[in-house]
């Protein structure tokens, strides 16, 4: 079956990377396309075809670079990437990010923090993102200090009249891990965190909590939680018109 170029381009955001690559290969007379080339092919197609891919920024607030939180965030990222989303991940514990100094310089004309640290890169990435994953283990009933510093430093996105500089509709996933099995135990705290992000101008938020997980293997054994992580990745990769 042959379809026109315009119709094909409209279909692409609804298909995963492998499917689009297979269609391209068939159109070019190729039976298979190596996996390593699939994502690049789709990226070029979307760019040249005028279709924007969803950009997802992942902020990992765990001090453990390869811990449970990283495993959860990676599962979400893989699912979003499989749907054609661009993923940019940051390990906050390895970055130079200072705490907010309450100087209010961000309320002046440039509405940017005057602290010239690694947060400056995050401002640009968050501003350009369609979705953000805030990933953290539960420490003392809360997010980690590493992630809390980033949240505090988002204050420049708020205008003096408390409206937001952020473009509307940025999806938020709060990806949480904890050793306790009761996933409702700290849920109210992360609801509060989500509402705080709404106040800052972010869009709809969802909360995913992986309980009973001290090491990555504990997480991977929970097949339903892993499946939910992948569903969240698919949701982040959807355009706002599809969500």
Low-confidence stretches: 1-10
Identify the CATH class of the largest domain. Answer: Alpha Beta
Beta strand count? 5
CATH architecture tag of the largest domain? 3-Layer(aba) Sandwich
**By CATH's scheme, which homologous superfamily of the largest domain applies?**
Flavodoxin domain
Question: What is the average per-residue confidence, as pLDDT, rounded to a whole number?
Answer: 87
Strand order of the largest sheet: 2-1-3-4-5
User: Pairing-aware structural class of the strands and helices?
Assistant: alpha/beta
Helical run tally: 9
Q: What gross morphology would you assign? A: globular
CATH topology value of the largest domain:
Rossmann fold
* Total of domains: 2
Q: Report the biggest beta sheet as strand number plus sense, adding barrel if it closes.
A: 5 strands, parallel
The H/E string reads: HHHEHEHEHEHEHH
| Alpha carbon gyration radius | 19 Å
- Assign a percent range to the helix content: 40-55%
Kindly estimate the percentage of residues that lie in beta strands according to DSSP.
5-15%
What would your notes on this structure say?
The protein is of the alpha/beta class and 243 residues long. The protein folds into two domains: 1-51, no CATH class; 52-237, 3-Layer(aba) Sandwich (Rossmann fold). Helix content is 41%, strand content 13%. It contains nine helices and five strands, in the order αααβαβαβαβαβαα. Strands 2-1-3-4-5 form a five-stranded parallel beta sheet, with helices on both faces.
């Amino acid at each position: 079956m042959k379809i026109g170029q315009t119709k094909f381009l409209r279909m692409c955001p609804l298909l995963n990377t492998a499917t689009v690559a297979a269609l391209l290969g068939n159109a070019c007379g190729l039976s298979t396309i190596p996996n390593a080339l699939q994502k690049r092919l789709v990226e070029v197609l979307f760019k040249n075809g005028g279709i924007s891919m969803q950009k997802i920024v992942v902020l990992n607030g765990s001090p453990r670079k390869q811990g449970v939180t990283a495993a959860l965030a990676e599962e979400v990222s893989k699912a979003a990437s499989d749907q054609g989303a661009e993923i940019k991940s940051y390990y906050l514990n390895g970055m130079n990010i200072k705490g907010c100094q309450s100087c209010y310089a961000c309320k002046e004309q440039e509405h940017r923090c005057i602290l010239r640290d690694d947060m400056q890169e995050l401002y640009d990435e968050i501003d350009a993102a369609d979705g953000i994953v805030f990933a953290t283990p539960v420490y003392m009933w809360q997010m980690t200090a590493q992630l809390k510093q980033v949240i505090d430093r988002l204050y420049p996105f708020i205008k003096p009249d408390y409206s937001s500089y952020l473009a509307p509709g940025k999806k938020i996933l709060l990806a949480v891990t904890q050793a306790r099995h009761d996933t409702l135990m700290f849920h109210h705290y992360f609801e509060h965190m989500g509402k705080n992000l709404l106040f800052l101008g972010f869009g709809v938020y969802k909360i995913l909590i992986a309980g009973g997980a001290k090491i990555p293997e504990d997480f991977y054994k929970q097949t339903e939680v892993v499946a939910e992580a992948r569903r969240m990745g698919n949701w982040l990769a959807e355009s706002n018109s599809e969500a």
